[in-house]
Amino acid sequence: MKKTSFLIISVVCLLITSCDFNNSISKDLNSGAVATGNGLSVEEIEVSVDQENVDKGEFLFGQKTVFKFKDIKGFEMTNGKAFPEMSVAILDEKLDTLDFFDNLLETGEQGTDIEPLELSARFNVVYPMEEDLTAVVEIKDQKSDGTFTYEYPFQVKESEFLNISTDGLSYNHIYLWNQGKQQTVTSDQIVDGRNLVLLFNGLQGFTANNGNVLPAISVKMTDANGNIMIANPNVLSEMGDNEVAESQLSDGIIPVTLSISEGEIANPVRLGVRVKDTKSSKTLEVATTLTIKD
């Protein structure tokens, strides 16, 4: 599966409280995270998902995750500046590397005189579900042997409010994206949810002809009064009888756009999406009930 990962490292100034990790090993009993300081110390570490702090490593596929390391000390200063480096590795349960981000700080050779110093790493969770994964963040001092390592165990979970049933077809990930909020939908209560996208990643099991397949996807959304809000017998109808490469489905992402017109919404609404192999009876269905608010 091809993955697109996003990581930004930033340096900001922030006043914080004290929690020293210098020259020590500390384990968080809630998350299982292990912090190891060797010459460098961190006053406080925060992990947040979609701008909300979390204390347990369970993320939904596609969520935006942020690691914040606040008030880092112990750097050997040159002309009043610190010269930090940061790398992040995502490891699978066999400790093989899924992703690696090196030399990520914009400060580079110029260094930074910001104090107190905070380093933040942001990335989208686009890794295998239901596996024991680990994010390993390493901060180094370019001017000394000082290091700080943070190992954070986590799992990628499926959205519980999506009811998914399969009959012959399979998938890697299915998740609902809120275009208005620019984030993964994590519950059946949606604010600013008139523009949604249901994303299918890694669809497999279609009957192939010389490596080509012909899928169909139907969509229906009704409100609490039974009125039809969205109805499309095949969102892929523009393809006609044109087959697509099997790899486009197995290695790519198929988006299904759900645009709700203006006006009052009679909640809750029911959504049903059906993926079908037109050359067999194989299907995959997604059903859910949502409350959508402006």
UniProtKB/TrEMBL annotation:
Name the UniProt record assigns to this protein: Lipoprotein
Source domain of life: Bacteria
Species of the source: Nonlabens ponticola
